[in-house]
Amino acid sequence: MPTITYEPQPKQHAMHSCAARQILYGGAAGGGKSHAIRWDGILFCLENPGLQAFLFRRTYKQLYQNHILQIGKEVPPECGRMREDAYHFVNGSILHFCHCQNLLDYLNYMGAEMHWLGIDESGLFFPLQLIELRGRVRLGGFSDSVSEASRPYLPRAVFGSNPGGPSHSFLKRTFIDPKPAMTIFTDTLMEQELGEPGWTTCYIPARMRDNRYLDADYGVQFAGMNPQRAKALKEGDWDAVEGAALYNLSRERHMVKPFVPPEHWIRFMSLDWGTAKPFAVGWFCVASEDTIVKNNPHLTATEDNPSRAVYIPASSVIAYDEWYGGADNQPDVGLYLDSTEVGRGIVKREQERGDRTPDYRVCDTAIFNRVDGPSVAERMEGASRGKILFGKVEKSRENGYNEWLTRLAGNPYLMSNGRVEKHPSFFISSSCVNAWRTLGSLMVDPLRPDSGPADRQEDHWYDMGMYALMSRPYAQSKREYAESIETFTKRVGVGDPYAVR
Length: 501
Known about the structure:
Layout: H1 10-16, E1 22-27, H2 33-47, E2 52-57, H3 60-74, E3 80-83, E4 86-89, E5 94-99, E6 116-119, H4 127-134, E7 156-161, H5 168-176, E8 185-186, H6 188-194, E9 200-206, H7 227-235, H8 251-254, E10 255-256, E11 266-272, E12 280-286, E13 291-293, E14 310-312, E15 317-324, H9 339-353, E16 360-363, H10 376-383, E17 390-392, H11 397-409, E18 411-414, E19 420-423, E20 426-429, H12 433-438, H13 460-469, H14 478-492
Parallel strand pairs: 1-7, 1-9, 2-5, 2-6, 6-7, 10-20, 11-16, 15-20, 16-17
Antiparallel strand pairs: 3-4, 4-5, 8-9, 11-12, 12-15, 13-14, 18-19
Helix pairs in contact: 9-10, 11-13
């Protein structure tokens, strides 16, 4: 076998050695994605005589400049040669170079059996194209010809992409939202669609610092870009979307691992009502003291933060649980549950969680409207036997949007090490999967930018969170919590006012 001089860098090696059936490798610009994906296909072709590998870019010009010109320089001539738009290896394997410039170009490949699929800059494709091409990935009769070393890895689909583009939301929903990076998990969206086990899946982030061959000043070229676009390309932040309403929302700054709030912290619940559209229920708490949450799996340990800690200042609000009334795998479609079912469901979830009852509940004022009968709020109160009583909050889109941005931005704090750092005052648990799925993709209203997200988006979690932040959440000390129980006991004679009944 000819001598191969390819030496993958650590993140590239992580991608090559990942045994997931579908992989997203990417994030920041300059992370070595194209090079790694091309060589992933080359290595499997060399290892498995007769393998059919397909490498895609959106346009032929991109394909030619980024891959066809490069393979002749990288692969020793004794390995094979280019013929038309495919590299033919002497062992019978073929690496096909393909493109899908027009939406329906994927139809050109519907008869193909793709043992290995690579889609470079997959965010620039349309979701339909990615889904259809992925559907061609199978071994078929080639299964018996796969080498022993390659059996854990084939068939295989590798996607490379920066944030942004027509398929941003599809890639984020498939690879980013379900599990932390570098974690192999099962694609449950496939299970819901097909009724069969989904593919093993993994997201491997690539940063500029992961590419030792990149120019030291490479990041400077993003100066002058839209700030969100520059952040997405420089940091590989999938929550940074150009024109995003919550442009300062970040998993690294605002996500915490699931946790049970300390007993004395204020708890409250917020609701955005919906039937044909999803409803959103969120449970929130207010930190009574400065708190450090360690070992957050979405963070990478660094020299400055070896314990992967998130610092939560006192009086910060944390969304620690959610119930999202949306249909499975149907964005922005509700469950058509009536208000009594939702009321009983809220109480049931609080009891199953072992949580104490919220100190208060807030909601959209529309649920107090009466049309030929009891209002939604009254029906919930009855269904919960008086456990669910809502308070009203100020309904102002401008003020609510400002509250979101202000809380996400945070305030400067003087740390114990003497440094002044700016920490958010709003955090969201990683268990609130629908928050992370929907919030980052909301686009600002271009006609009323101070009002936040434009209409006709999946903004139900945003609205629910806005009611929560507009409710003037307050912190209470351990002493105040103990005194409230003592006062209640004296008045009533016995019992805990916070017990969920």
